[in-house]
Specification:
This is T9SS type B sorting domain-containing protein. With about 650 residues, the protein is mainly β. It is built from 3 helices and 50 strands. Strands 1-2-6-4-3-7-8-17 form an 8-stranded antiparallel β-barrel. Strand 16 and strand 17 form a beta hairpin. The termini are close together.
Length: about 650
């Protein structure tokens, strides 16, 4: 199947991209590739224009030791799970400067010689619904060289690459709009020997999916300082080799043993030895009890010998009075503070995570959460001290309303009811900004509505609106005005034809099929195709009845013959066995007796030869499917010039 809009990298383009990058980067010294990597992870989030362009935002987090790396771009590879062969490359580029990982106690990091820098690389990824349709899912892989030589639990770290893998679901079935888990930035870069430590290594999930954590073996890879790109080698990354005495359940030696909370991703350990240790974890993503993806992460934890001396414990106050709970009016702010001491460092935390750049003795708070502050000495590596936690809660929690449905048809009734009213006060209903003069636990609407509730807070916070509920009404059955052509939907090979609707309603959703196989789901009322088939468009407005129209695209019987070549052939075909575009057919060969066809691999080896045989190429060589990519061909015709070109094979 061929689309006019494609962002898929063929193997050929991928080779060109890799070769170009290697040529450019070779102008730098090889030392620029010798990154001292101590951690990495990948995440992928739905872009705001996904419904139109199927674009995802890909983020690579790298953690490097002692100094920022010289790299400003990295390459990820994408492969199928089924055969682990690469499909394409994704280029991600550095955004912003390298940042020193916040430790809460900079002097101890300085004294113990290992600084960890966090670098963020971002790029776009086109989630092609044709290429990424395998039900088993796909992998996105980072393979980087090399690890920091000071890692104590990995054998030969300076020559061992690091690999992390993101496992994502297929794109043609729901939930193909899934965003992967996104790992939180570690809130410590070191822990103290013989101290019980809890380190948040977990992730957040924008879709609200269940996350489950476990300890795993770290992966090695195939990159080297001389060869920084290895995506051609596929998924089969070897495990990194543990140093003697270490394993996946004993990544940091301690008593009690290291463990990770399977629900929160909090790592607990009391280390009995000093050193710098890599920690490798897996987060699996479940929706409705079904696993839909997973994500690997590596981080490094430095265990140091902390002095027995400790700074005094900080006390969190508000207006000079110690507090452990503070009420905050929604939309306002409050200030927490601790005693100011010019000889101390401060690091405020919210819900156990460091708040970036909040290093003063006071903190302006604008939202609820659990806050505390870490205090450390600026001049000496003393044990830092952590304040008690202070809970900031809503002083005027808003009422919550819910509609029985967000989409409705015709003029059917929709019930909007109050499901939470913390203050217990009377509630006024509003439509947009207009007061309805109704005081009741629910209302009924039967047309497009934007409804909210409002109440008077029992304290000094004033009036507050609830969440807003929007109800959208659609037609019983969407009306369709389709593109038509006087001679029907007919094309010659490799011509383009646009099919679909001429009317485009903002609330309508469109789902496309080719020969009853889903090919696109979103907001495209028209599509441009270059091959034959029965294309079906399914149009809906929310939960209303669907309208369906079919377009039977066929080849013409009288396609014009180009006077020089006199042959027609598709430039792309998909020999994946689905019965659609499975063979490469050359039209008008019957005009030339004794023709010969030669198809070559990228090294010039003949993988298909046909002598006066009209049977088309099925994408195999010696009975085995060839990899996706571009394949040169030559057609010899007695008395005519040779026809040459290339074919792109997609799966």
């Amino acid at each position: 199947m061929s689309f006019i809009y494609k962002m898929h990298f063929s193997d050929f383009h991928k080779h060109i991209l890799v070769a170009t990058l290697i040529l450019l980067l070779s102008l730098k010294s090889l030392d620029s590739f010798a990154q001292q990597i101590v951690g990495a992870d990948i995440s992928m989030e739905v872009n705001s224009d996904f419904a139109i362009y199927n674009r995802m935002i890909v983020t690579l987090n790298l953690y490097v030791a002692n100094a920022p790396s010289a790299s400003f771009e990295e390459t990820l590879s994408v492969s199928r799970k089924t055969d682990t062969k690469p499909l394409e490359s994704v280029l991600v580029q550095r955004v912003g400067p390298s940042k020193l990982l916040n430790s809460g106690n900079p002097k101890c990091v300085e004294n113990n010689g290992v600084k960890i820098f966090h670098e963020v690389y971002v790029g776009e990824f086109y989630l092609n619904t044709i290429i990424y349709k395998k039900t088993e899912g796909h992998f996105m892989i980072y393979d980087g060289c090399c690890r920091y030589p000071g890692l104590d639990n990995i054998a030969n770290p300076s020559t061992t690459p690091i690999s992390v893998i993101l496992d994502f679901p297929p794109a043609y079935i729901h939930p193909f709009t899934n965003s992967s888990p996104t790992f939180l930035t570690p809130n410590v870069s070191y822990i103290c020997k013989n101290d019980a430590a809890s380190i948040m290594l977990g992730a957040k999930d924008g879709n609200g999916d269940e996350l489950r954590y476990s300890l795993i073996d770290p992966l090695g890879g195939f990159t080297t300082a001389d060869m920084p790109y290895s995506d051609e080698l596929g998924l089969n990354k070897p495990n990194a080799t543990w140093a003697t005495g270490f394993n996946k359940n004993n990544q940091i030696k301690g008593s009690p043993s290291m463990k990770i909370d399977s629900k929160t991703g909090v790592l607990s350990v009391t280390s009995s030895i000093l050193g710098l240790f890599t920690v490798s974890i897996l987060v699996e993503e479940f929706r409705n009890g079904v696993k839909i993806g997973s994500n690997r992460r590596e981080v490094a934890i430095n265990v140091i010998d902390c002095t027995a001396s400790t700074v005094s414990k900080p006390i969190v106050k508000k207006n000079g009075v110690e507090v452990n709970k503070v009420e905050l009016c929604i939309g306002s702010s409050t200030t927490l503070e601790t005693d100011n001491n010019l000889g101390m460092n401060f690091q405020w935390q919210k819900n156990g995570q460091n708040i970036p750049n909040e290093n003063s003795f006071n903190l302006t708070v604008v939202e609820k959460g659990v806050y505390n502050v870490i205090k450390s000495d600026k001049n000496t590596c003393l044990r830092e001290a952590i304040s008690d936690k202070v809970e900031v809660i809503d002083a005027n929690p808003a009422p919550v309303i819910k509609a029985s449905k967000e989409w409705a048809c015709g003029t059917e009734d929709v019930k909007i009811e109050l499901v939470s009213n913390p203050s217990g006060t009377s509630v006024d209903w509003y439509s947009a900004d207009n007061r309805l003069n109704i005081i009741a636990p629910f209302i009924i609407v039967n047309n497009d509505s934007r409804i909210s509730a409002k109440f008077v807070s029992p304290n000094s916070c004033g009036q507050l609106f609830s969440n807003e509920v929007q109800v959208i009404y659609g037609q019983k059955k969407p009306s369709l005005v389709v593109l038509t052509y006087p001679n029907g939907y007919k094309i010659c090979p490799d011509e383009l034809i646009e099919v679909g609707m001429t009317n485009n309603e903002a609330l309508q959703q469109y789902k496309w099929y080719k020969n009853n196989v889903p090919i696109l789901d979103g907001y495209n009322p028209t599509m441009v195709f270059s091959d034959n088939g029965i294309y079906k468009l399914e149009v809906s407005e929310g939960s209303c009845e669907k309208a369906i129209v079919e377009f039977n695209v066929t080849y013409k019987n009288d396609c014009p013959v180009e006077p020089i070549l006199q042959l027609y052939y598709p430039q792309v075909f998909t020999p994946n066995g689905d019965g659609i575009n499975d063979n490469w057919v050359v039209y008008n060969l019957n005009l030339f007796p004794d023709f010969e066809i030669f198809i070559y691999d990228r090294w010039g080896k003949i993988i298909f030869h046909s002598l006066n045989d009209l049977n088309p190429w099925d994408g195999k060589s010696n009975g085995i499917k060839v990899p996706a990519g571009n394949y040169p061909f030559k057609i010899k015709r007695p008395g005519e010039q040779d026809v040459t070109g290339s074919i792109e094979v997609l799966y």
